Recover the amino acids of this structure.
């Protein structure tokens, strides 16, 4: 009988646009090889640009508003995914798969059904003084070692679904803390990436309030006050470096897969839980916004099981598609009530099934500020709505891929905006999304300074966080 093993690489905070294979500044040769040996989905969106909600969504195949994992936790406590909710791990283990997970969890209970390795760290020495390692890279060092060990001794008597869940390039968050405020860059040998076309943010007055005050609800953004253009370019270099670490670890796991003899029978999947602002609008990491840099993520299906090679797949996709797609691939019945679509036809045809729209949502990070938002992408159009201040955004991604001009207030686009509003309303209704009745909460204290992230002073909304 045909074997259908599945090896899944998850990265944390990898923006689609950052990768050199997508025209970006960051080289990742092992990821590039995977893309060459399969299909690379060009327009895949995460369901929520934050770790835990995104992860809980793709492991259960359900929107955050349906599985109620709406934040990273802390002040806003989440309810863990119930035992009755099918998860990717539970469904595949029930159908005879050996379901193994190594690395970062942060899943709100959505990894149920996987045997999860302990999350531990392995200290490794810094290789470059400009780019120090922290617990994120130490965790990855442990994950890769355990993953390689496991694959090396796997017998393949049962089909294997194995997740290698890496945290990098997330080490960039700690790097910001080490380089907060006015500072001199630590020199390094190598090219310094150019800033993106949307680095300058002249349109900030024309954006919704939660976007205008991103610096007030996000400690990492506030730590960039005082940064120069050159400091931001070093951010990109550091991001690229930490991605390179993850990429080399992916290479090590693939080598172990080869040696185990499982390569020909294994579908390889790679994606990221969400993106990173990568200095667009002079912003860093993720949170609150729903711009392309943070919601659009790589999604690659690779290996002998994928009939098409080196294809950039056009058409909209969502990480919610993962669950039904993998079920379909493994000839396992798709559970009822999933929110994604089976896109496994791209393995053979290279074409993605057409859909009307994809959606991404935001509620809060830890619960200190709450700014519910929704994003609808349909065709070339993208519409964003926040409850706070009834903030709206409309972008024509065909003519403005960097979202530099918000068209929501431009009279000639009112008809288009109405269409996108109606599409959002239809989505809210269809998926029982309580978005419009949610309360938002942002103290005036965090909405008080002159516009511009560089005008921020002092601490941010999570006053009692230890991350200050
Ligand atoms: Zn601020």
């Amino acid at each position: 009988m045909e074997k259908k093993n599945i090896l899944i690489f998850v990265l944390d905070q990898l923006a689609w646009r950052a990768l050199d294979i997508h025209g970006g500044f960051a080289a990742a040769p092992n990821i590039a090889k995977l893309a060459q040996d399969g299909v690379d989905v060009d327009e895949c969106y995460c369901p929520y640009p934050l770790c835990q909600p995104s992860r809980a969504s793709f492991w259960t195949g359900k929107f955050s508003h349906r599985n109620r994992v709406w934040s990273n936790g802390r002040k806003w406590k989440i309810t863990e995914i119930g035992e009755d909710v099918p998860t990717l791990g539970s469904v595949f283990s029930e159908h005879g798969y050996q379901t193994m997970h190594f690395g970062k969890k942060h899943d709100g209970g959505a990894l149920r059904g996987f045997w999860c390795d302990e999350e531990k760290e392995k200290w490794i020495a810094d290789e470059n003084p400009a780019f120090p390692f922290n617990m994120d890279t130490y965790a990855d060092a442990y994950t890769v070692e355990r993953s390689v060990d496991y694959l090396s001794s796997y017998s393949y008597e049962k089909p294997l679904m194995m997740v290698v869940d890496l945290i990098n390039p997330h080490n960039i968050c700690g790097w910001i803390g080490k380089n907060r405020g006015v500072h001199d860059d630590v020199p390094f040998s190598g090219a310094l990436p150019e800033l993106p076309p949307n680095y300058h943010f002249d349109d900030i007055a024309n954006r919704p309030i939660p976007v205008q005050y991103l610096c007030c609800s996000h400690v990492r953004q506030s730590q960039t006050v005082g940064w120069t253009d050159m400091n931001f370019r070093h951010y990109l270099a550091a991001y690229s470096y930490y991605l390179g670490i993850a990429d080399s670890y992916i290479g090590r796991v693939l080598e172990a897969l080869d040696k185990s003899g499982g390569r020909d029978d294994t579908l390889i999947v790679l994606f990221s839980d969400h993106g990173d602002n990568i200095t667009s609008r002079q912003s860093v990491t993720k949170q609150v916004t729903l711009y392309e840099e943070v919601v659009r993520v790589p999604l690659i299906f690779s290996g002998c099981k994928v009939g098409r090679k080196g294809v950039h797949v056009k058409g909209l996709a969502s990480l919610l598609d993962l669950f039904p797609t993998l079920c379909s691939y493994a000839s396992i019945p798709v559970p009822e009530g999933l929110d994604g679509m089976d896109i496994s036809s791209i393995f053979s045809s290279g074409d993605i099934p057409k859909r009307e729209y994809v959606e991404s949502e935001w509620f809060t990070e830890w619960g200190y500020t709450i700014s519910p938002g929704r994003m609808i992408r349909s065709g070339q159009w993208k519409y964003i709505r926040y409850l706070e201040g009834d903030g709206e955004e409309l972008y024509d991604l065909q003519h403005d891929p960097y979202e530099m001009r918000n068209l929501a207030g431009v009279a000639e686009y009112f008809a288009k905006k109405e269409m996108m509003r109606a599409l959002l309303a239809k989505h809210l209704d269809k998926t029982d999304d309580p978005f419009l009745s949610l309360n938002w909460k942002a103290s005036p204290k965090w909405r008080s300074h002159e516009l511009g992230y560089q005008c921020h002073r002092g601490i941010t909304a999570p006053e009692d966080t230890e991350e200050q």
User: Anything to note?
Assistant: The pocket of zinc ion is lined by residues 213, 215-216, 449, 456 (CB under 6 Å).
